Amino acid sequence: MALLLTLGALALMSRTADWMQGLCGARAAGGTDNTNAVGTDGVPELDYADVELGLHQRGPFFDVAYSKNVTALVGKTAQLNCRVHELGNRTRGPFFDVAYSKNVTALVGKTAQLNCRVHELGNRTRGPFFDVAYSKNVTALVGKTAQLNCRVHELGNRTVSWIRHRDIHLLTSGRMTYTSDQRFVSVHNPHTEDWILKIRFPQRRDSGVYECQVGTTPPIGHRMYLSVVEPLTTILGGPELFINQGSTINLTCVVQHSPEPPPAIRWTHNDEVRWTFNEQEINYDSPRGGVSVITEKGETTTSHLLVQRARQPDSGRYTCSPANANPRSVLVHVLSGEHPAAMQHGGQLRIQYPLSAALLSVIVTIMGC
């Protein structure tokens, strides 16, 4: 019996010693002594959840004690700090330098620049983007082919489409046309980054917003406005002018609503009074002399045709033909004497009623007789 008691005491002492050794090792390693956990044999068990695992690394982690919320004053520079431990050779990838990527205030009509500085971009690309300097609004003339240009960089294998916003209608996709209106054509040269929407014989109803869209996910688009205008050409004092012989013929042609000043304005004259309708361009260097043109170009272009010392051969139809607008004509009569039904203004007479009305009155009178 004594021998059995002795052996039991020795076994208990051995287990107690092992337990103490394990406890000391865990504390030396920074572990937690969970003395509330007791095994089935009455010996406390260790919780190794927080025991450091030697060379094992948990990767980057934030030091929240130095990465805190910040309160700053309006207009004063603010700094948010982020302390990261065990970052190793990891990089945070592309990031914006907000000190050089700021809001911009620009003047109307002056070129504006928005700067975006990106660090650690590496070989990354931002995908397709529009070159707005070559994708602008367009003003076109009625009946003259209009072209909307869309320049897209880094397009890759994505598709460019044109959409009309008036009715959200897909006009073209790639180089294919998806509208029954065959006036719309997509044009692209594989050696360029330009995608052109060509509109043949445009009308004023074609004015509106058109969008160049790239088939990314989600799609990106750039809008442009097409304005189709019809320039107005008028000759002041028309359609008929009565001029005293020997005075100066002063014809004023006005061109309005043109997207740009006409490159040239052509004046022609034919001797319609003598029933010869061969229209000829006026020769300003003819032996007759005294013929000149003064043209002032701008938003409204004005051209003055001056014929000094008017004579009977100077009668006829004069036509003003701007290069980018419809022509307009006026019938000039050079009178050898006073005209009782005309009003005189500095040598230039303007009849109150057109000549055709006077002739019609004469015809009616004769027929009545």
UniProtKB/TrEMBL annotation:
InterPro entries: Ig-like_dom, Ig-like_dom_sf, Ig-like_fold, Ig_sub, Ig_sub2, Ig_V-set, Zig-8. GO terms for cellular component: neuron projection membrane. Residues 1-19 form the signal peptide. One of its GO terms (biological process) is synapse organization. Keywords: Signal. It comes from the Eukaryota. PROSITE patterns: IG_LIKE (PS50835). Residues 128-214, 231-336 form the Ig-like domain. This is (diamondback moth) hypothetical protein.
